[in-house]
Amino acid sequence: QQQVKQSPQSLIVQKGGISIINCAYENTAFDYFPWYQQFPGKGPALLIAIRPDVSEKKEGRFTISFNKSAKQFSLHIMDSQPGDSATYFCAASWRTSGSRLTFGEGTQLTVNP
Amino acid sequence: DTGVSQDPRHKITKRGQNVTFRCDPISEHNRLYWYRQTLGQGPEFLTYFQNEAQLEKSRLLSDRFSAERPKGSFSTLEIQRTEQGDSAMYLCASSFSQGALVNEQFFGPGTRLTVL
Lengths: 113, 116
Description:
- The structure holds two protein chains of two kinds.
- By secondary structure, chain A is mostly beta strands.
- Chain A is 0% helix and 52% strand.
- In chain A, the strands form two sheets. In chain A, strands 2, 4, 5, 9, 10 and 11 form a six-stranded mixed sheet that branches.
- The termini of chain A are far apart.
- In chain B, the strands form three sheets. In chain B, strands 2, 4, 5, 6, 9, 12 and 13 form a seven-stranded mixed sheet that branches. A four-stranded antiparallel sheet of chain B has the order 1-3-8-7, with no helix packed on it. In chain B, strands 10-11 form a two-stranded antiparallel ribbon.
- In chain B, strand 5 and strand 6 form a beta hairpin.
- At the A-B interface, strand 5 and strand 10 of A face strand 4, strand 5, strand 9 and strand 12 of B.
């Protein structure tokens, strides 16, 4: 059962533009929603994370928007840069499951100069 | 100690052989996770440890797979009688957990397994 669905599968943005990646989840027990960035040949690295008691969290150029009633959350990358070109994964977990992460399918972001 | 390390980074083996991977977590982290990632997909949970106790195993972890974390420090993941379908990136992550407080998982660089 796919518990976290991510879209789009790939995204091309011009330098300076806004990149938006969306995720939807099914399990209402999830209580932690991180976004990871992965470069080829590397392990995923945490970008930003949110808990369901807030609707938005911003760190630098990265913002998570969270809609608990719709069971959706999204990542916004402002002023996208070529160095942001990577694969982005949303994930979700809940504490009573040992906080194991359930990942989305990933979005390959390309930022053109 | 600057992060999670994994060894080897790459492993090529023939079908039917056994392989073992090692993960060294961040030193103060009491939780250690193993994930598997195939090309173009997100990582999938395999198993996790709290200190030396293995608390959960995914149904993805067939009886050919075994993981250990002796003394609650490094961990090993062994695959017996490898199959071509085992080809993937095997990722290790660690975190610190205290009661209800669970912090972020830090991932290692992974071990890329190719089964010929």
